[in-house]
Amino acid sequence: MRLLLHICCGPCALFPVHYLKEKGFEVYGYFYNPNIHPYAEFVKRLETLQKWAMENDLQMIYNEEYKLEEYLQAVVYREKVRCRVCYSMRLRQAAQVARNGKFDYFTTTLLVSPFQDHEMIKSIGEAVGSEYGVPFYYADYRPGFKEAVAESKAAGMYRQQYCGCIYSEMERFYRPRKEEKGGRKNG
Fold first, then answer.
1. Per residue in 135-160, pLDDT tens?
2. Contacts of residue 11, Cβ cutoff 8 Å, sequence gap at least 6
């Protein structure tokens, strides 16, 4: 059975690829992450995955479209649903590629992170899978998260410090000063 694995980054691919191959799937990777910010971060993640996939003979499909504006237009004034928009963009595209490539299933490495909303990913995956006629394969890869972190560190892979969008970058790195928390400081 052929399975298309949407891959957000190299380190997150480690456990799902091993897991799926052990389950007997013929795994093909699919890189599509159009809203990673900044673009230099997008390139680091892409290059890290390309190197790992080549070293591990993982067949890959790369979609290097960068659609930051499209993502921002979809979430502006709706920032609380930004993850739903992000998951939908990626999974809808993966389902379309899976249908066009006559894959039996598709899934995503987003399911390896304990920081992602698994129920939302599963729900969106099943909905777009139904729409495109390719079943979404749900598996909870979180038990392999720590193992993948250790393996990626040992391999010297680039490991990002935030999910990827401009909002997650801000949440990860921006720490307002105390006087900014209650409002703007005049001066």
1. 999 999 999 999 999 999 999 998 98
2. 48, 148, 149, 152, 157, 158, 159
Single-letter amino acid code for the residue at 163: C
**Residue among 61, 43, 55 at smallest CA distance from 7:** 61
CB 6 within 8 A of CB 128: no
Residue 125's nearest CA partner among 3, 2, 22, 1 is 3
- According to the model, what pLDDT value does residue 187 have? 44
Q: CB count, 10 Å around CB of 170?
A: 11
CA 184 remoteness from chain centre = 35
Question: pTM surpassing 0.85?
Answer: yes
Residues β-bridged to residue 108: 6
Going 122 to 123 to 126 to 132, the CA torsion angle's sign is negative
Structural domains present in the chain: 2-179 (3.40.50.620)
Count helices and strands in the chain by DSSP H and E runs: 8, 4
Give the separation between CA 90 and CA 22, rounded to whole angstroms. Answer: 25
Residue type, 124: I
pLDDT digits (tens, 9 = 90+) for 27-73: 999 999 999 999 999 999 999 999 999 999 999 999 999 999 999 89
- In the block, residue with structure tokens 């298309």: 4
